[in-house]
Design goal:
With about 200 residues, this protein is an alpha/beta fold. It folds into two domains: about 90 residues, 3-Layer(aba) Sandwich (Rossmann fold), CATH 3.40.50; about 110 residues, 3 Solenoid (UDP N-Acetylglucosamine Acyltransferase, domain 1), CATH 2.160.10.10. It has three helices and 24 strands. It has an eight-stranded mixed beta sheet with strand order 6-9-12-15-18-21-23-24, with helices on one face. The structure holds acetyl coenzyme *A. The site of acetyl coenzyme *A has 13 residues, from β23. This is Transferase hexapeptide (Six repeat-containing protein).
Amino acid sequence: MKLAILGASGHGKVVADTALQAGWTEVVFYDDAWPELEENGAWSVAGDTAALLSQLAEFEGVVVGIGNNRTRLAKTRKLACAGARLATIVHPRAVVSSQANIGRGSVVFAGAVIQVDSQLGEACIVNTNASIDHDCQLAPGIHVCPGVNLAGLVTVGEACWIGIGASVKQQVRIGAGVTVGAGAAVIRDIPDGEVVVGVPARAL
Ligand SMILES: CC(=O)SCCNC(=O)CCNC(=O)[C@H](O)C(C)(C)COP(=O)(O)OP(=O)(O)OC[C@H]1O[C@@H](n2cnc3c(N)ncnc32)[C@H](O)[C@@H]1OP(=O)(O)O
């Protein structure tokens, strides 16, 4: 089971490590910084995006390991259009309800919990020890950072970044492209594109 990861970043290393623990047997990175960048931690970087596109048939799965939400989403969609078999990577010690859905090209790291009837779009990151409670709706390209807690029935728009340790009250709707600062407590709906910080969270 050979996995290609586009994006030889620190985040990419966590994707690689998670994938190996989830049963993938070999990981190869690709990054547009190649050939200057030949290694990412324990793994080799074999080429750039063009090389990956020409070698897709060699891989049982492909996933994008780029932290920037819009870039990760765009690259994921480009790979899908090119016929890549997009992998969804879930750590064996994450807890995901059998009634939850996780979109293609998304990753769920160690200690994360995704509860019943939550739906996640493609190319999302559910980072270490984050929790997404029941009936949440997450659009594509969202990063739920380590230690975030989303209560039940929370809606999050495309390409949002929910910063480390943030909490979101039940039934809150967060618009597309929103950034929630580290440690924020979101208790009201947030319109598209806003950056909010603090307890309670307010526009920056
Ligand atoms: C595995 C991983 O590493 S995953 C990555 C995890 N990282 C994160 O979650 C980071 C989240 N990012 C943040 O919280 C950032 O601070 C942001 C995006 C909210 C703001 O970043 P910037 O636009 O660069 O803001 P900047 O640092 O210039 O701060 C602007 C003001 O907001 C304040 N501020 C910034 N972030 C926060 C925050 N999280 N909570 C409260 N206040 C904040 C600053 O103190 C500053 O206030 P001042 O003008 O009174 O001095």
